[in-house]
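Example 9 (inverse folding). The structure is encoded as follows.
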């Protein structure tokens, strides 16, 4: 999104922002359960992926950023037109939902081909950490 003084937000055009199939650097909240085992910065695959802009009161409302762009030059490999627009954007967060927690991310595909080796722990951390219900092997039934 682009913000001009005195104007409403509007989507960036392709001549201002385009990042196809590149590796970018993000900061990580290593204390977040979904980022267990991750380092404080990791490289992620970015293919014109969505980026979230959290509201200033997000933390007070139970939303915690897990991975975000803390630089206006996150490009590590590939090319990025308008990469400066990413600074401050969030790529993954945790949110309280009722008695549970949701961990949305900007990843378009969960396949191994679309992530770097270091980002794998962030993909699986929220699934493997703190399980509440487990499936009994071979039955498809849930158990505690």
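The amino acid assigned to each position is listed next.
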């Amino acid at each position: 999104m682009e913000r001009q003084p005195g104007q409403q937000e509007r989507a960036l055009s392709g001549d201002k922002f385009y990042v196809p199939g590149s590796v970018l650097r993000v900061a990580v909240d290593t204390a977040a359960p979904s980022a267990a085992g991750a380092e404080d910065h990791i490289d992620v695959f970015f293919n014109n992926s969505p980026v979230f802009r959290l509201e200033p009161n997000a933390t007070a409302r139970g939303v915690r950023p897990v991975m975000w762009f803390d630089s206006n030059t996150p490009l590590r490999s590939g090319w990025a037109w308008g990469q400066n627009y990413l600074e401050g954007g969030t790529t993954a967060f945790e949110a309280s939902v009722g008695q549970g927690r949701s961990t949305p991310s900007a990843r378009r595909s969960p396949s191994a081909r679309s992530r770097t080796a270091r980002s794998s722990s962030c993909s699986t951390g929220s699934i493997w950490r703190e399980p509440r219900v487990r499936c009994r092997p071979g039955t498809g039934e849930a158990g505690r």
